[in-house]
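Board notes, transcribed. Complex of a protein with magnesium ion.
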Amino acid sequence: MWAAVPVAHVAYSAVSCCRKRKERSVHSIVALFNILKKEESAPLTRPVPQHIAVIMDGNGRWAKKRGLPRTAGHKVGAETFRTIATYCKDIGVKYFTVYAFSTENWKRPAEEVQTLMDLFRRYLKEAIETMAEKNVAVQVLGDLSVLSEDIQQLIADCNEEAAKLEHPAIASLCINYGGRDEIKNAMRAIAKKVQSGEIQPEDITEDMISQNLYTAHMPDPELIIRPSGEIRTSNFLLWQSAYAEYCFTDVLWPDFKPEDLEQAIADFNKRQRRFGGI
Ligand code: IPE
Ligand code: IPE
Ligand code: MG
C-alpha cells in the first residue's frame, strides 16, 4: 500500500537503512525511488473499455475435470456470468456482451441443449424482475425465431422492461448467434432495399452494414476475452471485432474471477492500438 505511506517517511527510512548497511545502499535506494516514481505516476483509476465481450467457454471441461456431467459446468458458468456482468457494471463498463449459444451449438446432445435453454429461461426471468433495481438493460442477440415460444416471450418482456430504463448499462446475451449468419441476414436486408429501388448498390456503406447487424446502435467491442485455452473466434462478432483487442486465458469459464477480468483489462491498457496508422 505505497499510496498510504508518506513518501518522505519511506525515503527517510530507506536512507537511514542504507547508511547502516552500505552493501545494499545504492541499488536498493534507486530501486525504491523507481517504485515510488512509478506509483506516483500510475493513474488512480485505470481506464476501462466501454464494451467488453466474452466467449464463455470451458464449462464442459471444468465439469469433466471434476467427474461431473457437462451440464453441471453450465450451471456454474451461469453463476460466473452473473458475477462478471455485475462486476463489469460496477467498474463502469457500459456494454458487456457474452457468447452463450452459437448457431453451431445445436449439434450438441439434446439434454445439454435443454439444460442451456433452461438456464436462459431462469436468467431472463430473473433479469425481468431485477433490471429496474440494477439499471442494467438485458437484451438477447441472435436469430431468435427458432427459440421456443416461451423463451421468445421472455425476451420480449425483457425488452419491454429494458425500454423503461434511463441510461442503463447494457448486458447482451448472444443466443443462437453466429457471426456469419448475422452478416448474411444483414446482406439480405440490404439486398431487399436495392431490389425495391430504395437504394443503389453504391449507397451501401460499412456503417449501413453495421446498422443492419444485431449490434446496431452499439459500439464495437474494444476487448474480447476468450477463456479455456482455445485461440479462435468460433464465429463470434466477426464484423464487429475488426479492431478488437483479444485476450486469451487458460482459465475455464466457471473458474473465471473478477481478478481475471482485471488482468485482461490491464493487458488491454498496455496495448498500443494503431488502427492501421503508425
Ligand atoms: C461453453 O462451454 C458453453 C457453450 C458453448 C454453450 P463448453 O460447453 O463449450 O465447454 P467445453 O469447451 O466443452 O469445455
Ligand atoms: C463457442 O464455444 C460458443 C460459445 C461460447 C457459445 P464452442 O465450444 O462452441 O466453440 P468451439 O466448438 O470450441 O470452436
Ligand atoms: Mg467449448
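The pocket of IPE (ligand 2) is lined by residues 55-57, 99-102, 105, 230, 232, 234 (CB under 6 Å). The CA atoms of residues 224 and 246 lie 5 Å apart.
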